[in-house]
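Batch 3, record 17
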Amino acid sequence: GQNIDQPTEMTATEGAIVQINCTYQTSGFNGLFWYQQHAGEAPTFLSYNVLDGLEEKGRFSSFLSRSKGYSYLLLKELQMKDSASYLCAPMDSNYQLIWGAGTKLIIKP
Amino acid sequence: IAGITQAPTSQILAAGRRMTLRCTQDMRHNAMYWYRQDLGLGLRLIHYSNTAGTTGKGEVPDGYSVSRANTDDFPLTLASAVPSQTSVYFCASSDSPSGTYNEQFFGPGTRLTVL
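Prediction for the assembled complex:
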């Protein structure tokens, strides 16, 4: 079966760094997406990885290891507006996104 | 219209009633999707359409139907609503369902309550 595992909730301090991990098992693999979702709003795209390694985009970076079925999202210089849920979504062999339940990130001053 | 819109924003519906959720995009995307999102669960795909005139079933299609008469519109119909269909429904679109890049753009969602 297909399975996505990410922590339910994390807490971090404003200005700090946080790493949100995601492990996955899918039928085939065609890349992995990270989305951000603020409470009561729609998910919005953050990053896409298809090759192993780190992709950096401003304060956010995403890492992928296909052999380990593992990805993480790294958020630096945390701001209060980063309080949101972060959704890990690998793409399977049918090019369908398989969504994790998301990690709720709480930022404290 | 800019992007992807959904209507209504929210709805309270009596069990057994028929309901159509509307979704329109102006990005000329080929693929469109309907998801439901329930507390503690990931987004679950209900139905999808890779191009106008074609549709497919997702993970949880029972009780729902869709049509894709043109590129822009992708309505979702609940023929006879049941309380377990209480959820937040998101419509999404992407330029291509396959290939090296498949970023999905989401509508604002419809919050549906079935009593």
